[in-house]
Design brief:
single chain, 262 residues, mainly alpha, 0% strand, globular
Length: 262
């Protein structure tokens, strides 16, 4: 429980060096957050560690397609961030999660609310990290592509690709651009990108949320280019992920896509 030990623990968690039983991850983070909170109440300088714990907790929940639950630690991180003079760029993951919640949680999709959150924080991302700048830009482009601002969405997505390539985010940048192209009706271009870029080959090691997301992208691209049978195979992969892991928060979206393409 010494501060150096806690810093080392958070470092290992953030870099995937600590092996954790998935079923116990919530208990681990709640225990850690409670411990850090008590230390902070006793005047210990642990605010940055507590923010990092909240952000990592939120990311783990999102990776498991638990966007609703991820809002709580992300909101707590944001509250503490307002008390800090200096921000760690990694904390901006909380903004991504809150924007995703603003757009996607509820009975109807609200892309412009997600855009609003991201645009408020884009200047901070631009100041702190090129990686997060590109991430926020592509998120904004994805949301805009589902509104009437389709031309703006494509321009912003192309700019995000130029900003984000070569900084370790290449795969996500390209997948995001493929999604924008699908949303604006340019399926052939999206399909060409998916099939001609080795980086975009299926990776079984991806987290659950990402595997469902990518399955849906492949299904839409294949269907849009006349490969209905192959599209259904990708939809079945998404369906198996949802049912096999009880990903109830994305179930409706996968079923809606199956109805749309079926």
């Amino acid at each position: 429980s010494t501060l150096p030990a806690l810093r080392d623990l958070l470092h290992d968690v953030e870099h995937g060096l600590l092996q954790m039983e998935p079923g116990l991850s919530d208990l681990f983070f709640l225990s850690l957050e409670a411990h850090l909170w008590r230390l902070m109440q006793h005047g210990k300088p642990v605010v940055a560690l507590l923010i990092a714990a909240y952000v990592r907790h939120a990311r783990c929940l999102l990776n498991e397609a638990r966007l609703i639950e991820a809002q709580t630690p992300a909101s707590r991180a944001l509250h503490l961030m307002s008390q800090c003079e200096q921000l760690d760029h990694r904390w901006l993951s909380a903004i991504h999660i809150l924007a995703k919640g603003a757009a996607e949680i509820g009975s109807r999709f609200r892309p412009l609310q997600g855009v609003e959150v991201l645009r408020d924080w884009l200047p901070v991302a631009m100041r702190l990290s090129l990686t997060y700048e590109a991430w926020f830009l592509r998120d904004i482009a994805e949301y805009l592509s589902q509104t009437r601002s389709r031309s703006e969405a494509v321009r912003m997505s192309e700019y995000a690709v130029r900003r984000g390539m070569g900084i370790g985010e290449d795969r996500n940048v390209l997948l995001s651009h493929a999604l924008v192209l699908l949303n604006v009706g340019r399926s052939s271009e999206a399909m060409e990108m998916l099939t001609s870029t080795p980086l975009l080959a299926w990776d079984e090691a991806q987290v659950l949320q990402q595997k469902v997301h990518e399955s849906a992208i492949w299904a839409r691209a294949l269907h849009g280019t006349g490969h209905a049978a192959e599209a259904l195979q990708w939809l079945e992969r998404a369906h198996q992920l949802v049912e096999g892991h009880n990903l109830w928060q994305v179930r409706a979206r996968v079923y809606a896509l199956h109805h749309e393409l079926g």
